[in-house]
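Let's do one together. I've listed all components of the complex below, 225 residues spread over two lines.
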Amino acid sequence: QKEVEQNSGPLSVPEGAIASLNCTYSDRGSQSFFWYRQYSGKSPELIMSIYSNGDKEDGRFTAQLNKASQYVSLLIRDSQPSDSATYLCAVMGVYNNNDMRFGAGTRLTVKP
Amino acid sequence: SQTIHQWPATLVQPVGSPLSLECTVEGTSNPNLYWYRQAAGRGLQLLFYSVGIGQISSEVPQNLSASRPQDRQFILSSKKLLLSDSGFYLCAWSQGQGTSPLHFGNGTRLTVT
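Okay, and this is what the predicted structure of the assembly comes out as:
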């Protein structure tokens, strides 16, 4: 069983639509969850962090966490072509709280 | 503010040659430091992480090694590169509190020929 799983995509949405990205993780003891955006050829950049069950909003981004279901999601509202990138889900504490594991990423394309 | 420097940006090395990639962090003390590798079109594979000077945890058995000679310096090495070592190498740091996110350097793209 993979530690952090994401649909690889590609996910394609029209400009202005909501993009929904999903992630599941295997370690029920994980406590910290992150979403990163990675443009082609670049390093990942942090978008959101979430630690408690429920929703966390930051501008056009909303992260959702459900620890009982071991599920994390990222919603991008009013998607823009500049949002086209690979989105990486990351989970801290898969084996200890210094160990961060990443999913394989979901490639998002926003079409004008 | 904290900054992370990673070099070189690109590297082309023949099979069997040695490797040394360096990463330094400024503006913080006693950070956790990480090395990840990303193969083309793939996710990030954790190679090594360090919670302090001389303390290295290895995640994947391979021909790579890591060292942390100073608090804010992390070095990735190999004595003899393999073709399969090609990839995008990323250094990252965190505050090490268990809830802190990782912050990445710009990466080194290594091609082994």
